[in-house]
Amino acid sequence: MQDHIRFDEEGLHLLDQRHVPATLEWVHCTDAATTAAAIRDMVIRGAPAIGITAAYGMALAARCEEDLDAAARTLLAARPTAVNLRWAVEHMQRLPKASWDQEARDLHQEDIRINKAIGAHGASLLPKGATVYTHCNAGALATGGWGTALGVVRSAWSSGRLAHVFAGETRPYLQGARLTAWECEQEGIPCTLVTDSTAASLMAAGRVDAVVVGADRVAANGDVANKIGTLGLAVLASHYGIPFYVAVPHSTLDSRTPCGADIPIEERDPAEVRGYGGTRWAANVEVFNPAFDVTPAELVTGGWITEQGPWHPPREEAVR
Asked: 216, 223, 254, 293: which one is catalytic?
């Protein structure tokens, strides 16, 4: 799946991930503002995919002869936690704007190549016949194509090393239930969807060989910001002696942020917790809805998996 982000003479076309798998709808972006809105409103999500989309947003701003500094600020404000957004915008700003259309396309294709390298490295770390637990969606939909954490799953399946994958539903936005399970279904990868609260029981029963997740930012000391619930999984995996891996491209490694405490954590609309799809089930109380949590480096027991191969945190110098 590599066509959920399309760029042509008419603009940027994004598969609206808010409606997958119920319907496959598209959102058309024509400038930086509409691109930023698509990022902010979760039309597109996943750190690498956000970075690619931001690069295309800068290209659209150049096409429209917008104020490019203002366009960059608009895009950077869309979502604060995923460092790939900042990386992509700053990368584009260093180049002549006449090259931005092609550069954004090149970044998109490079991300797919990087993802496949991550997948190959990660698959080699798993025991033959592995059962993997994954959280949120770090698949093709979250990247340019193939995926990071789910790219490891995809590569392990294609090489005959994977037996099964457990996908946590990932409350409150259900990226695991809606997107990861759908991607596995599309490719015939054996997948069981579970509630987030089932993870401990699976690990206690010895049914998980490895936990593999993606990340939205890795700080210089190896701390990992990823979808809310990741920290709990890392604690469980550590308790049960299960290797915990973080699959990321180099653009997610942030040497400018010293540790996890310095990573800005986005808080989202309380309505996401109170209900879903027009149905409300919660009482009228306050809601705390952080989109991410921070996993300390020492809990990443398996290591990071990048396109350059596996690393083992804490590795401040490796990130730099």
From this structure: 216
